[in-house]
Design brief:
Helix content is 70%, strand content 0%. By secondary structure, it is mainly alpha-helical. It starts with 7 loop residues before the first helix and ends in a 7-residue tail after the last helix.
Length: 303
C-alpha cells in the first residue's frame, strides 16, 4: 500500500524547520552574517561619512561602499547553501521530494536574513547625520522617513538579488571550494562593470553593465540621494574657483561650466528609482527560477 504524499506546504514547512535548525546550530556563521553588515556600516560612517551628503564625489563614493557591502553580504549568505547539501538533495529527490519546496524554504530564510542585514547596513545613513551634524556645514541629508525607507528598500533588493545570485551559482557548481573561489570574482566583475569605477557609456561594456546588480543599486541609491544636485568636491571646497568659472561663462571666455553634471543614471525622479527596483526584482526571480531548474536536473547528476 503506497504511503500518501504530504502536501507541498507541509514539505516546505519541514525543509524550513530543518534549515532554520541548521543555521542556529552554526552559531559562528550566523554571527558572521550579522557582524558583516555591522562592520560595513561602521566603515561607511567612519571612512565615507564625513563627506557624504556634502558634495557629489563624497556621496557617490559612500553609496558605492554601501552597494559593495550589500552585494558581498548577499553572496556570502548563500554561495555555499545549495552545493554543500547536494548529496542530501539528490537523496530527497530520488525519494520523491519536491525541489520547489526545498528551494522556497531556502529562499524565505535568505530573504529574512537579508531584511535584517539591510536594516543594519542602512542604519549607517541616519548615523552619519548624527555623527557629523554641524551648524557650520550644510548637508543635503535625506531626513524624510520616506527617503530612509527608499534607501532601505534599495539596499534590501540589492542584497537579496545578490543572495539569489549566490543561490544560483551554488546550484551549478560541484564543490564548496569552487563556490568559495567564485564569490570574489563575481564581486570584482560587478564592481568593474558598475559604471562607477570606469565609464561604461558605449559599446559592449555598456551592454554588459545593464546585467550588473551594482549598476541598478547605484542608480537607486544615487537617485534617492539626488547626486545631480550636489556640487563637485572641487566646486564645494573653493568658492573662489566657482566664482571665476561663473564669470568666465558669463563673459564668454568658456562655453560651458565644467562643474555642471547631470547623469541620467542619477535623475532624482521616482520613475528612475522604480525602474532600478523593478530590474533588481526581476534579477531575483530569474536567479531563483534558474537555481530551481538546475536542481531539477539533479536526478541525472552523476557527480
Amino acid at each position: 500500500m503506497n504511503q500518501k504524499r504530504i502536501s507541498p506546504f507541509a514539505e516546505f514547512s519541514i525543509y524550513l524547520s530543518q534549515y532554520v535548525s541548521i543555521l542556529f546550530s552554526s552559531t559562528k556563521s550566523l554571527l558572521v552574517s550579522v557582524f558583516f553588515p555591522f562592520v560595513a556600516a561602521i566603515i561607511t560612517v567612519w571612512i565615507a561619512g564625513e563627506n557624504m551628503f556634502l558634495h557629489y564625489d563624497g556621496t557617490k563614493s559612500g553609496m558605492f561602499v554601501i552597494v559593495c557591502a550589500a552585494i558581498w553580504g548577499g553572496l556570502f549568505n548563500s554561495i555555499q547553501t545549495i552545493v554543500k547539501e547536494r548529496d542530501n538533495i539528490k537523496r530527497d529527490y530520488a525519494a520523491g521530494a519536491r525541489i520547489g519546496a526545498y528551494m522556497m524554504s531556502r529562499t524565505v530564510v535568505q530573504l529574512v536574513m537579508c531584511a535584517v542585514q539591510s536594516v543594519i547596513l542602512t542604519a549607517a545613513i541616519p548615523v552619519i547625520h548624527i555623527v557629523y551634524e554641524s551648524e557650520d556645514v550644510v548637508r543635503q541629508y535625506p531626513d524624510k522617513p520616506v527617503d530612509l525607507l527608499a534607501y532601505y528598500l534599495s539596499v534590501f533588493l540589492l542584497m537579496f538579488a545578490a543572495d539569489a545570485m549566490g543561490l544560483f551559482a551554488s546550484s551549478i557548481v560541484r564543490k564548496q571550494e569552487t563556490a568559495s573561489v567564485m564569490a570574489p570574482y563575481i564581486l570584482i566583475v560587478q564592481l568593474i562593470f558598475s559604471g562607477i569605477l570606469f565609464a561604461m557609456d558605449k559599446g559592449a561594456s555598456k551592454i554588459v553593465s545593464y546585467f550588473m546588480l551594482s549598476r541598478w543599486g547605484m542608480q537607486a541609491l544615487g537617485s534617492i540621494s539626488n547626486l545631480n544636485a550636489l556640487q563637485l568636491r572641487m566646486e564645494h571646497e573653493s568658492t573662489e574657483l566657482t566664482t571665476l568659472v561663473n564669470n568666465a561663462v558669463q563673459t564668454g571666455q568658456i562655453s560651458e561650466n565644467p562643474f555642471v553634471h547631470n547623469e541620467a543614471l542619477f535623475e532624482n525622479e521616482m520613475s528612475t528609482v522604480l525602474i532600478a527596483w523593478g530590474i533588481m526584482l526581476a534579477f531575483i526571480i530569474v536567479f531563483i527560477v534558474g537555481a530551481t531548474i538546475f536542481l531539477h536536473r539533479v536526478s541525472k547528476d552523476k557527480r
